[in-house]
Amino acid sequence: MSTASSPDPRVEVIARPTPVPPSPRTAGERRRRVWWPSAGTVRGGLLGGIATASGMALTATSGWLIVRASERPVILTLLTAIVAVRAFGMARPVFRYWERLTSHDAALRLLAERRTSAYEALIPLTPARLGRRRRADVLTGVVDDLTDVVDAQVRVTVPVISTAVAGGIVIALTMALALPVGLVMLGLGVVVCLVSALAARLESRSLPELLAARAEVTRVSELMASQAGELRAVGGWTTALGWLDDAHAALDRVTRRISAGRATAASLFLVAVGAAVAVTAVIARDLPVSTPVKALLVLTPVAVSEAITPLVDAMRALARARGSERRIDALLDLAPAVAAEPASPEASSPDRAPEDASGTPAGHTAYAGGDRSDVETRALTASWTGARTDLTTTDLDVPAGSRIAITGPNGSGKSTLLAVLARHLDPSGGTYLLGGADALDQPLEQARSRIAVVDDETHVFGTSLRANLALARPDADDADLEQALGAAGLTPLLRAMPDGLDTTLGAGGRGLSGGERARLGIARAHVSRRPVVLLDEPVAHLDPPTARAVVEDLTRGGGAPGTSQGEAAGTPPQTIIMVTHRDDGADLFDHVMQVRRRPSATMSPNTAQHTAETDARPDDRTHEPDPPRR
Amino acid sequence: MKPFDPRLLRAVPAARRPVAVLAATGIASGLATIATAFALSAVVVAVVEGRDLVTPLAWLLGLFAVRAVLAAATEWVAAWAGVSVSSALRAALLRRWGTVDADVRLEPGAAVSLATAGTAAVEPYAARFLPTLVTAAVVPALAIATLVVVDWPSALVVVLTLPLLPVFAALIGKATAESTERRWSALAALSGHFLDVVRGLPTLVTYGRARRQVTTVREVSDRHRRATMETLRIAFLSSAALELLATISVAIVAVTVGLRLSTGSMALGPALVAILLAPEAYWPVRRVGAEYHAAADGAVALDAILAQLEPNPTSAPHSAPNAAFGAESAALTMSSTSNAAFGRASGGGGAVGRVRLTGVTYAYAGSPTPVIRDLDLVAGAGLTVVTGPSGVGKSTLLDLVAGLRRPGAGTVEAPASHYVTQRPFLATGSVRSALTIGHPATDEQLWEALRAVEVDGVVAALPGGLSADLGDDGFGLSAGQRQRLALARAWLAPETLLLLDEPTAHLDPEGAEHVAAVVAELAERRVVVAVTHRDELLAHADHHVVLASADARPVEVILTAGTLPASPRTAGEEGAR
What we know:
heterodimer; A: alpha/beta; 2 domains; four-stranded antiparallel beta sheet; B: Rossmann fold; five-stranded parallel beta sheet; three-stranded antiparallel beta sheet; elongated; transmembrane (chain B); P-loop_NTPase (chain B)
């Protein structure tokens, strides 16, 4: 019945966040069940009940009218019934229209409310609790799940209330007319409740399998659609077609199973109605009531069948919404990875407290420049879950303006280190000094305002190129933006833009290639003029030549003197710390640091630029790097 | 939107059966519904006249049982048909993309969304809208036909009023079309906003802009609600109007029947049948309108998918592997099963197939100037190294030889190939499955190949060795490790032609030297064509081809002396080995 909802079997999200211990979130109100009605939905349900009851009354009184007419009374005696039939006939569409407006408006209000609160709840969880990879997909999952949950109001709550109200009226009226028939109707109501419960149960039992099967189909088809050439090149296309067939077969199997539940409910409803008609007919024949009333009573269960049919779909929507609610709760109930307030608020480095306390407005904080932002860690350890150590003791000295590449095998803690440096994740031990002061003692917003983060999936907002860049520093002028684009190697892109900085990007706008997106993320970091830029495998998804070109532009444009426009404008060169693989351009950095899963991380300077091969032997011990070459 | 596109049945034969079964259950349900009206009126008449109930009740119960079975079948068939049709479309779409030029394919983002969200949107179209459509086509006709027999005046009323529904729907649609369209596009923008902001949340948090957006999210959600309600008001109003129209029409039937009953010119039985059947003529038509919105996305997606499946006039017909040597049309080899066959046929002896390009011109789709113009090239046994400035079309040349692109003019003759692209494909899954994606191999063979490219140590160190899971797209491996795994896979490949795109690009000099030696070893048994901009490979090259800048002049090709036939366009020589 809903026209506001998205297509039914939506593509399911593959990525899900890694499990972390939950925190008792500001619970309470959000703990209500998905079908729990809001005031507007109750109104909608009541209106729907009137519409449904009118429909039943229409069928029943029509039967009465026809039978009464066959008795050939004076026409005038039929008039009341004719008026009633007309009234019911008009009431049904009118009340249905009213119900749909009311319940959709209520649901959309709820959606707005849930979206806002979910968005607020996501902010402290971003990015650390969204998982390491495919965060955008996790977030898309939240948006879809919210829609499903709110959909339950229109697809579950309103039909159920409507049917209950109409059913109650029918039972009451039939009981008043003829108690035995009323009891039959009551029995029918009980059977309908039981069958609905069964349908809901069957539906939710197979739902996880269905979602898994859909996710697998999506994964394989995404792979085949985006990498057809690469697959064919290595002779893997036939194998991939086999994966697709397997995924389709599994989906087919689960769909058949889940539809069996729905089929059972639909057929049981009809069996129950048929039985009710038969029993009513037997009872009604010998009742001491007029013949038109007998006809009315026999036709009543038939009219009921119209009202209960929507329950099958309602139970399906209920199962879906419950699953979605569980997923949302599992994510939003996580504890943020950083404590909101510094551990000891009064402890702050004396030499830089005044400037920072004054110049940082809440919400957005643009770094003004001026003080040094050396990055220094001692015996730093960190853990995502608290259960295992993801970053073993790490010492790091990054003087302001230097360019460091962090390499290491998978799982060695490179990204964990970067998350701690970005103040996305609280360390579990050790110290982290940012600009000489303990970063943990600085207000979170303030510490973060000194750091720009670029990850491997740069989001392009569906707005102008200018707005996409200026979000990093709203007071940046066009010259700043063009400079930043230039430093990130995007001048050709800007020239190709039909409306320059006003060209709309993102969905519905101009698409960007993978390389252009990575460069856009870097350009944002330039625009921000934040003293420290952290990059987490920004080129991981690019082909090697493009990846190298991006890193070359980064190391040339960002930190090196002479080429840095920022320095000319009075800003010191940005410190660049990038997690990468050594063959993605680590040799272009001043220093390469190796993180490994062992007691201590090692760090070594490049003996010469562009020859990373010779540095960072695995057995190197931690030591102070040389000052960056200028 | 076309309610039903017969192209679906032509392009996707697998969709025929589900659609046929849907139609059959729809017709059967319609017949059962009409029969029920007779049985029900018989029961009512029996109750009213106090006659024997057994026979009519038996009929009624039997029909309800039949309808129960049909209702179960309808649910089951609808779900099955939805999945079958969308799966069949997805498979057809992907199979199609597996045979066409890289250029002809949609750009990756659009391709992914059409193959996933697009085909999924067809599911409600097939599972809900098509059954509704079948019912709307069948049940009213059956109801009217029955009414003609039972009580023709009622049939006349229905025949006269039923066409008013679609006419009204069309009128309402036409009157509101412009504003509806405007609202829908506004609605799409508003509903996209929240997704955009949420997906960009990591960026907003980084730059301290996330809190600011809370108010925006609230405001936009509210605007979204208002805009949606504007649109829904019209949609609901039109469906309410149609329902009212249907109710009035049924009322007219009831009134005429009632009048004739009260004058005694009609019996109760047919009268009851008439008023029970009349609504059956109207509601299926109304439901088509109601399901229209849910199916609209699917119908649009279906249109886009069918457009992709249509034979493309620009791409040449796909010739059989190695059948068209020297023919006028481009002879391309690509399918992996025939690859294997070819590999077996010619891989044993020294007669490995060679590569010959004659007068090949290629331009990217939408580009007026060809990137490769009138190129002649022959590559025989051994290692042929292709060099040239960036952007000269080196990778495109390999794509052409591999059959991933078709030349605009000229011919490409090449045996089946194994092609290591710049970013070689590594599926999520075990190292073993990544290496055996093209052809099966034993673990011993795998280790031998891994040893040959010196990546066995890396694999052995992974937890699980060959069974270790690679991340998405080989995530977690460095580019060099990915490249070496790809070379190990090439080592295992039975194809006689090996194409390598920058095989040493991201290796340190030591590693590049070694990989070059591995490539040279591979070239002892096969034809190897490698594109590079580094020197290590040149030291091992049997032939060296330099692609010159191809602005206006024909591409200049420089071949080594001796083994290769002279081409009129060869100019100069560059030695190797």
